[in-house]
Input
Amino acid sequence: MERELKTFFHCEGITKYYNSEPVVEGVSLELPAGGFISLLGPSGVGKTTLFNVLSGVEGLTSPDTGRVFLDGEDITGICGKVSYMLQKDLLLEYRTVLDNVILPLLIRGEKKKTAREKTAEFFPTFGLSGYEKKYPCELSGGMRQRAALLRTCMQHNPVILLDEPFSSLDALTRRKMQSWYAEIAERMKISTLFITHDVDEALSLSDVVYILNGKPGRITQRVEVQPRRPRDADFSVSREFAELKRFILGAIGV
Output
């Protein structure tokens, strides 16, 4: 029997203006507990603006209209309720990997020794064992992204917003990171909202793909990906995958 996923994080009717012009308009999304949804669309359509609103970045980015909810609580404009990882890893080059990863705990007031002990336990899970005392410049692109994701997870929020986290990686590393993150999210029971320009990536990872298109950006399609996760390795070469990809490309206008 397929598990029934309950909506855990959602937004309703989000509109955001800049310089009196709407960037996104009337956007509504639903992310179930443990779910994975992708936001797909061309550059400049407002995806990152929407993420800034959903995360309440610095408590300053509130929508002009609409509300954001987490497990029934109105968190509109409140920073820190969901985790948010930008496209760049933003690791501090003068800190070791371990001391980069503990930053969310230090911000919450943890002592450095305690924060290091708590965080070190996760290094094997994230494939970072032995890299605790390395510096970011000593890591590959994929390893840097693992470290950045671990730092994001150390906020211990149930929802993570990821803004194209693998776009700077080569194709092979990117595929490995996609599979790896899907396993991590399942194991740690993380609900994920993911920005991407890559249709293949969206289909491989997601339960649902939302298409944001136009100026201002609006949700123009909601595409359920079948079969549900977890999927076997042949899904990306299946007829179902090809049909969904063709539909999405047409919906975007490619």
